[in-house]
Amino acid sequence: MKLSTAVKPISHIKSHASEIISEISETGNPVVVTVNGEARVIIQDLKEYEKDRESMAML
């Protein structure tokens, strides 16, 4: 995980989805989504995800 990874609660994601998606697309940095204070999922830019998958396939 990158050092610049943001952590946001699900309530923030729900009310600011468009802004968060734009930010992720522009920066390439993922966002960790928490539910009840616990990290549950990561929202990641598709291009970054594909690069990560290609890198893992080469291992």
Break the fold down into its secondary structure elements and pairings.
Layout (H helix, E strand, L loop, with lengths): L5 E4 H6 L1 H11 L3 E5 L2 E6 L2 H13 L1
Parallel strand pairs: 1-2
Antiparallel strand pairs: 2-3
- N-to-C CA distance: 18 Å
CATH second-level architecture: 3-Layer(aba) Sandwich
> Could you give the count of β-strands?
3
The CATH H-level homologous superfamily: YefM-like domain
Question: Which spans of ≥5 residues are poorly predicted at pLDDT below 50?
Answer: none
Task: Give the amount of beta strand, in percent.
Answer: 25-35%
Strand order of the largest sheet: 1-2-3
CATH class type:
Alpha Beta
Q: Helical element count?
A: 3
**Element order: H for helix, E for strand:** EHHEEH
Instruction: Determine the CATH topology.
Output: YefM-like fold
Query: What is the 3D shape?
Result: globular
Number of domains: 1
Largest sheet: number of strands, sense, barrel closure: 3 strands, mixed
